[in-house]
Amino acid sequence: MMGFSMYLFVLLPQLFLRFGLAENPSGFTSLTCGAPMGTSFLEKATNITYSSDAPYIDTGIGRSIKSSYQSKSEQQTWYLRSFPQSSRSCYTFNMTTGDKYLIRAIFFHGGYDTRPSTKFDLHLGPNKWATVSTAEETKSETFEIIHILATSRLQVCLVKTEDSTPFISAIELRKLTSKAYANESGSLQTFLRADIGSFSKQSLRYGSGVYGADVFDRIWLPYNSENWSQIRTDNSVDNDNGFKVAENVMATASVPTDPDAHMNISLTGLHQTSRFYVCLHFSEIQELNPNDTRELKVMYNGRLIIEPFKPISFYTRSFFRDELGPNANGQCTFSLQKTASSTLPPLLNAMEVYMVNSLSQNETDTKEVDTMINIKLSCGINKVDWQGDPCVPRDYMWSGVNCSYIDSEQPKIISLNLTTHGLTGEIQETISNLSSLQVLDFSNNSLIGPVPEFLAHMTSLKVINLSSNLLYGSIPTSLLDKVQRGLVSLSIEGNPGICSSASCATTNKKKTKKKTMVIASVAASIFLILVIVLVILKRRAKLGRYPSSDHDDNNLQQCNNQSSSSEMANNMFTYEYLAQATDNFSNVNFIGQGGFGYVHKGVLPDGTEVAIKQLKAGSGQGEREFRAEIEIISRVHHRHLVSLLGYCVIGTQRLLVYEFLPNKTLEFHLHEKRRPLDWSKRMKIASGAARGLAYLHEDCNPKTIHRDVKAANVLIDDSYEAKLADFGLAKCCLDNDTHVSTRIMGTCGYLAPEYASSGILSDKSDVFSFGVMLLELITGRRPVGKSHPFADEENIVDWAKPLMLQALNTGNYHGLVDPRLEKDFDISEIKRMVLCADACVQHSAKHRPKMSQIVRAFDKSISLDDLIQGVALGDITSYNLDGSSDYTSTEYKEDVKKFKRLVLESQTFGSSDLTSDNA
Q1: What is the CATH number of the domain that holds 757?
Q2: What is the pLDDT of residues 538-559, one digit of tens each?
Q3: Which alpha helices (DSSP H) does 544-592 contain, by range?
Q4: Transmembrane region positions (predicted)?
Q5: In 3-state terms, what secondary structure has residue 722?
Q6: Is residue 68 located within the same domain as residue 35?
Q7: 579-590: per-residue pLDDT in tens?
Q8: Residue 640 half-sphere exposure, CB side, CA atoms within 13 Å?
């Protein structure tokens, strides 16, 4: 007799079809693997609804079988998920401990790639379930197992064992009753499930007939012998016992053609050490004459396993026998024999055979697994080997994790090393669930907040390494006490904000004094700003204001503070929704990292591509304040500004959903892409970015300072239109301090002199940064070098100032312009951009133009002389050319160094980028 897996996918289509979308029975989970997120359909052959597997796995690649095979196979196998990278890839299902499930895994290659011959292992949790081997793209493999859940989590894993790619087509979970298949040891792997005496050549399962379907969706395969005769009844057969065998299955049976013969069934393909369970189902489905009797017994390898009995008319009687195995000769023969008093031959309606799979490897403690999954999701850890159980099997233990293994006990995590993993946010208290943890290494990350008290109460913890993070505050007294007594080794160096308990009081006094001085300077600054504003308004009344050039009909723009707050509430996404859109923020969808956080590409169920930014933790704002700021940003709509589509708030996590621009950033095109931007594209990008910034400064309500204008924040669409990103984020992502000067913002190389020296920000600070970006477009150079943050390096303004003056005086721009352009540029346009850049990077903020003037200069609608506000070219420079300036290049560099140190010492740790190439 053939094994169970050899029958499946051969006996299609089914006899009967049901139409209309059906709701799956309770306890059914039916997944089509690799299908796009949101996929759902009714498979008419079974009347079962299937959905995408995406919510249950965060790795793998969705593929499709050849279209020529789709008409010959059920729809749930049209897709598949392959795993070319991971050594182990796992599906995770949250279940109820103690429940019993029939688990089915289906594999159909279908020619999705050129290597149909594959071999890999299938695991249930940490234990091997089966070896999957496919030789032809037209053949399928199906594996079933009946399993009682020892924990509240079920994991189905694909494990690479050879040089081939694991894949899976469908997963089906079917909840069983506790009375069915009451095995006391191990799980039961399906070897055979036979519909004896079936008059059909097709399999039977849930939804296969108008009536009599299998409520557990077991697949019954027709089986007959040439020595048997088939019988059937049209009467109803009662199947109401724990096994609930399909009524259609019980309505047919086989008997020996020779009424005096035995009914023998031999199993092949079993290993000599195999142990299996057999389940035999009987029902008398013939109307017996008064003098007729049917009585039989069942022998196995010559041994009586079922005492003589009489099948009951039209009622199902099931016999479950365990721990059977082959004899010394490998023989496995069941013999149904009539007794001496029986006038009729033996009868059999259905038969099931299950191999015992002990699944002996204990799973890691549930709390510890939950903790590790929480760390993985909340910290955005995308390690390819962080799949399945963290500790077992040992060959697949998660990197950075070490475990203890004691016989008959669950493995425990004793060491967790996540050094240099880009961790952000505060240290989570869930780590305390790792009750046996001895070593914790979170060094060289960006963790913020205080050193948590709970670390002192983890009794097994011996080594704590939190060095080189952004932690602040005092070390808990209880933890210091354990350190002083030699019970714990604590490494905390490289956290500028950390103080010992003794020194904190002094530090706080200094901070109070410093805040008083800041408040005084702020008040003076506000008074000065008000005076300047009055002067400007008076001047505008006389001379007229330079209008923004972005009021044409081609620009879609809106910045209305009267918009309904419910508008943004409707665009609030759940974390689970965004995790699904990004394959659980997988490495495949990782776009880049910037000052504010990490960005992943996502695809919403309707096919919309989005960019999802996970803000770095550390915001001092509550959820209400954050929502208020986001509502303001969401009202800003402009052709040259990246649109905010929605957001997510979960705990301390903040996520923003933006429109996705596929053509990357200006920084990429200038400094990383091999093929340089041509001059016309550079002009187009400069003009677009200027329009977006002018709109923020002068037409938006409330008016907005960008605070971090740089090439990495200029996104490019397919038409090379520029869109500014990250505007407005500084206020909603940093602390609640009300004065702009206390917020550490910006990227070194783009910093305006007044901000580097005093911390004062204005719209003219944005103008300076924009000028630096224009110099990048002109020269192709980075703002500063890429070495250590405190290195003395010539910045682009220092380098370009004398060359700009020379070029404007001589008309020769070749020493200034990006050599990759190979002199392929328009002289009049390059002159216009150089003049704009020179005007923008003036040292004195009051001598810099407004962005609307830059826009008009690009449009050739104002005189270029107006850009420098009556100051002769070269008289006022960012850093003096003749040594006569009051503010020298050296002083600027020293201020930038102070700025960098201020970032490191600040407890705000906002979104400052200390390198010139941060994306």
Answers
A1: 1.10.510.10
A2: 554 433 333 333 434 334 344 4
A3: 566-569, 575-581
A4: 517-537
A5: strand
A6: yes
A7: 889 988 887 888
A8: 22
pLDDT value at 738 more than 60: no
Average pLDDT over residues 5-19: 34
Q: Is the pLDDT of residue 815 over 50?
A: yes
Q: 851-858 and 827-840 are packed helices; what angle lies between their axes, rounded to 10 degrees? A: 170
Max intra-chain CA distance, the chain = 128
Among 550, 708, 726, 895, the active-site one is: 708
Distances, alpha carbon 889 to alpha carbons 758, 784, 798, 801, 885, in Å = 16, 14, 7, 11, 9
- The answer to the question of residue 910 being in a domain is no
Structural domain that includes position 692: 546-905
Strand ranges, E, within 747-855 = none
Pick out the residues of the known binding site. Answer: 613
Regarding whether 439 and 325 lie in a shared domain, the answer is no
CB 74 within 8 A of CB 203: no
Domains in the chain: how many in total? 4
620 and 649 assigned to the same domain: yes
**733 HSE (CA, 13 A, CB side):** 27
Q: What is the DSSP string of 849-879?
A: PPHHHHHHHHTT-S-GGGGGTTPPTTTS-SS
Q: Is 708 a catalytic residue?
A: yes
Please determine, for residue 480, whether its predicted confidence score (pLDDT) is greater than 90.
yes
In a shared domain, residues 596 and 680: yes
Q: pTM (2 decimals)?
A: 0.57
Q: Which residues are annotated as a binding site for ATP?
A: 613
C-alpha 258/C-alpha 437 separation (Å) is 70
Q: Which residue has the tokens 């001085």?
A: 517
- Written as six digits, the tokens of 436 are 């046996």
Inter-residue contact 353 to 327 (CB < 8 Å) = no
Domain assignment present for 273: yes
Residue ending a domain, among 334, 357, 380, is 357
What gap in Å lies between CA 181 and CA 193, rounded to an integer?
A: 13
Tokens of 323: 């721990």
Work out the pLDDT band at 521, boundaries 50, 70, 90: low
Q: In this structure, is residue 186 part of a structural domain?
A: no
Asked whether 18 and 47 are in contact (CB, 8 A), the reply is yes
* pLDDT band, residue 285 (cuts 50/70/90): very high
Q: Residue 399: pLDDT above 70? A: yes
244 and 154 in one domain? no
**Same domain (yes/no): 382, 420:** yes
Q: What is the CATH number of the domain that holds 412?
A: 3.80.10.10
Burial profile 236-275: b = 16 or more Cβ within 10 angstroms, e = fewer: ebebeeebbbbbbbbbbbbbbeeeeebbebebeebeeebb
Residue 178 and residue 148 in contact, taking contact as beta carbons nearer than 8 Å: no
Token couple for 773: 């970006």
The phi, psi pair for 540, rounded to 5°, reads -65, -35
Average pLDDT over residues 754-763: 80
Q: Are 645 and 603 in contact (CB under 8 A)?
A: no
- Give the C-alpha separation, 584 to 418, whole Å: 19
Average pLDDT in the chain: 82
Residue 509 lies in a domain: no
Query: Which residue, 668, 644, 638, is CA-closest to 657?
Result: 644
Question: Contact at 8 Å (CB) between 728 and 722?
Answer: no
Is residue 528's pLDDT more than 50?
yes
Write the burial class of residue 527 (CB in 10 Å: 0-12 exposed, 13-18 middle, 19+ buried): exposed
Percent of the residues in the chain that have a pLDDT greater than 90, as a whole number: 56
pLDDT at residue 551, as a whole number = 38
Pick the closest to residue 778 from 819, 836, 817, 814 (CA basis).
Answer: 817
26 and 46 both lie in a single domain? yes
Answer for the pair 312, 283: CB distance below 8 angstroms, yes or no: yes
Q: Are 416 and 351 members of one domain? A: no
